[in-house]
Amino acid sequence: MTAPVFVVDAVPGPGSFLLDGPEGRHAVSVKRLREGEELVLADGLGRWAACVVLTAEGKDQLTVRVDEVHEDPAEEPRITVVQALPKGDRGELAVETMTETGVDAVVPWAASRCITQWKGDRGLKALAKWRSTAREAGKQSRRSRFPEVAEPMTTKQVAALLAGADFAAVLHEDRDHPSGALATAELPAKGSIVLVVGPEGGVSPEELAAFEAAGAKPYRLGRSVLRTSTAGTAATALVLGRTGRWS
């Protein structure tokens, strides 16, 4: 897919289709698509259709011809990043870059050393922003499957997630830590990989012990220390390359 992507609730079959609403407005008024140009309709769940613009009307209506409908299977191994809550808008930055890179799921985690805490309406708004960011980044990066952004998890819930993974790792910031390097870890070709990114203050000893008990060993990325908003992207890229998903 190289044409611009627009999201629909359900991908239509071959024939004509009217794209309207916010996506139609974006296509007509922002992208300024006109007759004969190509676009893609996708549901974010793997199903997508190659289309050609027939007519553009007003500011938010585009009639397209649906030529081919495809369904991309979920890729393996599935990569999930458990992301400790960063300060400010760095959480959205993390979600955006991980989505562009190819992560399959993101789990917000309220680590004990997180300065930011999601509570009440503030938490609901923050989660909605993360999900909207994943959707928009999925469109921009021409993905047919957008990453799932889960409900926030506690440390206990994260430990249960790690226990069920085929490979689980906690990214450790100490380059002198006796843990191994993620670059040389034995990774599965299928199943699930879960990577934990701690907050700026690091994963606490209690959290590290809980995760190790669940089967997640600490691993280092490299000699430099990455911020919590970039570590997940770097780790995802490394795993995508090592598992062959980028081949």
TrEMBL record:
Its EC number is 2.1.1.193. Residues 19-66 form the Ribosomal RNA small subunit methyltransferase E PUA-like domain. The keyword Cytoplasm applies. GO terms for molecular function: methyltransferase activity. It is found in: Cytoplasm. SUPFAM superfamilies: alpha/beta knot, PUA domain-like. It catalyses: uridine(1498) in 16S rRNA + S-adenosyl-L-methionine = N(3)-methyluridine(1498) in 16S rRNA + S-adenosyl-L-homocysteine + H(+). Keywords: Cytoplasm, Methyltransferase, rRNA processing, S-adenosyl-L-methionine, Transferase. GO terms for biological process: methylation. Signal peptide: none annotated. Pfam families: Methyltrans_RNA, PUA_4. Residues 75-239 form the Ribosomal RNA small subunit methyltransferase E methyltransferase domain. CDD domains: RsmE-like. InterPro entries: Alpha/beta_knot_MTases, PUA-like_sf, RsmE, RsmE_MTase_dom, RsmE_PUA-like, tRNA_m1G_MTases_N. NCBIfam families: PRK11713.2-3 (NF008693), RsmE family RNA methyltransferase (TIGR00046). Specifically methylates the N3 position of the uracil ring of uridine 1498 (m3U1498) in 16S rRNA. Acts on the fully assembled 30S ribosomal subunit. Belongs to the RNA methyltransferase RsmE family. This is Ribosomal RNA small subunit methyltransferase E.
